[in-house]
Design a protein that fits this description.
alpha/beta, elongated, about 525 residues, single chain, about 5% strand, Rossmann fold
């Protein structure tokens, strides 16, 4: 029965997510696709580091792309990982009861939050899969008698956690959260059940990847171009908080704060957790994870994104399923059935009726509208993967010439020098990350360097695409008034209003996509 439930729930995930696999890629997905274009191992590693994402998903996608490089086929990989997440989640909750397995499977399969990341060509689906796998093994460890804990389960748990840490950088928060999970779910000899040595090795390995990959690839930076966004995103904000210029001086700062905060919160829940309240284990782990993300965001701003709460959402969904399945009286069971069914129906309607990625696709059309209004325009895209979504938006307009400037700037002469005597308008399409804006004057300096390469008065129009969590204020502060277009993607409010012109002036027009103009 549990197997049938798992298969039906996985089929529901596939049915809900399949219509979204053919949509156009957005900017972050283009960064993932960039790694597939690398011809050498060094080029692949460089693309992974500049994407600021550990290599596990990119490596898996590279193997998957051997069959086909079609975008819909590539998106089937995270879709399959999402189905595997549902199957494993059913097995995890099934250790409590069959009803809990059914409830958790239905809710995991219909959650719009999880579906949103199951159809995105990023590492979040792999992060979700490693989360439920780690929880399933942690449950077995916590539920077994102390003398019956299988050493292989501990090895498997640590291996899964290592895979999670190599799939997304915030997965290191899973390590203390899983420890809290085991501690809350066990009755006695709690601390002896947790594989502290293996978890310590996982954290050390994660740290080596995080520290070593940018250091090893510093040679890819050009002396006239800005530092790699991967290096900047991983270290810049923490350096500012610690007041240090050397990365070695503050490597342990986020880990210390996160570890201390989660340990304190988990200890309180452990001391208060009675036996046979199985749902307290995943719920306590969810609380520990959210507290850890919040604490980390104080010193490491890029962590505080909705998608970083993906493991906590999985924890909470399964905890809810186990909790409502524990009802013993008939009237409470009927209420549990009704509540789970109503929630699943509401989530399905929300997913089918909405387009949660619409805001992600708005900026290429807005930028294309600006560019195609000119005669024989040239677009210089920086970094080069920023051209992917934009290129699809102008696929039927062959008069637009697109030139791709690499993130390390090494092809600057090849891309920019032929444009010195260009008669048509030149548009500089720039992907702006929070890390770039934290370097005072970096954006303005970059535009000035391009202008200098093109000669006096080249007539550049800057098309600035910002990340969702970037305010327009520092962008406007860094650029002179000859910036004429700015495209911003936002994720605020319940709707997705698309793009609209606003704040028009004689030399400045701002285009904002999906939210407020200014913070």
């Amino acid at each position: 029965m549990t197997l049938l439930t798992a298969c039906l729930c996985a089929a529901a995930t596939l049915a809900l997510g399949l219509p979204a696999v053919a949509r156009a890629p957005w900017l972050d997905e283009a960064a993932t696709l960039q790694a597939l274009q690398a011809q050498t191992l060094a080029g692949w590693l460089s693309a992974v580091v500049h994407d600021t994402t550990p290599p596990a998903f990119a490596a898996l996608l590279g193997v998957w792309s051997r069959v086909s490089s079609n975008l819909a086929w590539l998106r089937l990989l995270p879709m399959g990982l999402g189905m595997a997440t549902v199957l494993t989640g059913v097995a995890w909750a099934g250790q409590a009861s069959r009803r809990a397995a059914a409830y958790a499977g239905v809710l995991l399969a219909t959650s719009p939050f999880l579906l949103r990341y199951d159809v995105e060509l990023r590492a979040y689906a792999l992060l979700g899969f490693t989360t439920v796998c780690a929880c399933a093994y942690a449950w077995r460890i916590a539920d077994a008698k102390p003398e019956a804990v299988d050493r292989r389960d501990r090895y498997a748990l640590c291996g899964i956690l290592l895979l999670g840490c190599l799939s997304h950088y915030v997965a290191v928060l899973l390590v203390p959260s899983i420890a809290a999970f085991i501690l809350i779910g066990a009755t006695h000899q709690r601390f002896a059940r947790v594989p502290w040595t293996g978890m310590g090795i996982v954290v050390v390995a994660w740290g080596l990847v995080l520290i070593g990959s940018p250091l090893a690839l510093r040679h890819v930076q050009d002396d006239w171009w800005m530092p790699a966004l991967g290096w900047d995103l991983l270290w810049r904000s923490t350096a500012e908080v610690a007041g240090a210029s050397n990365p070695g001086a503050y490597v342990g700062l986020p880990g210390v704060i996160v570890g201390a905060t989660i340990a304190a919160g988990a200890l309180v829940v452990v001391l208060a957790a009675p036996r046979k309240r199985e749902w307290l284990a995943p719920l306590g782990a969810a609380v520990a994870y959210v507290v850890g993300v919040a604490a980390t965001s104080l010193v490491w701003q890029p962590v505080w994104w909705p998608r970083t709460l993906l493991p906590a959402v999985i924890f909470a969904i399964v905890a809810f399923g186990i909790a409502v399945a524990s009802a013993s009286e008939a009237k409470w069971r009927r209420l549990a059935n009704a509540s789970v069914a109503a929630l699943a129906i509401a989530w399905t309607v929300m997913w089918v009726s909405g387009r949660p990625w619409e805001g992600l696709e708005a900026w290429p059309q807005a930028a294309a509208h600006v560019v195609t209004g000119s005669a024989h325009p040239t677009v210089v895209a920086f970094p080069d993967f920023a051209a992917w979504p934009f290129e699809r938006a102008i696929a039927e307009r062959s008069q637009v010439e697109i030139r791709r400037l690499r993130l390390d700037g090494r092809n600057g002469s090849e891309v920019l020098d032929p444009l010195r005597h260009r008669s048509g308008p030149i548009y500089l399409l720039v992907r702006v990350d929070p890390a770039l804006l934290r370097r005072p004057g970096a954006l303005g300096e970059m535009v000035d360097r391009v202008r200098a390469r093109l000669g006096p008065d080249p007539g550049i129009t800057a098309l600035i695409v910002t990340s969702p969590d970037v305010s327009l204020v520092p962008v406007l502060e860094q650029l002179r008034d000859d910036l004429v277009w700015l495209v911003q993607t936002r994720f605020r409010g319940s709707g997705w209003p698309g793009c609209a012109r606003s704040q028009e002036g004689p030399r400045l027009t701002i285009v904002t996509c999906g939210g407020e103009l200014l913070d």
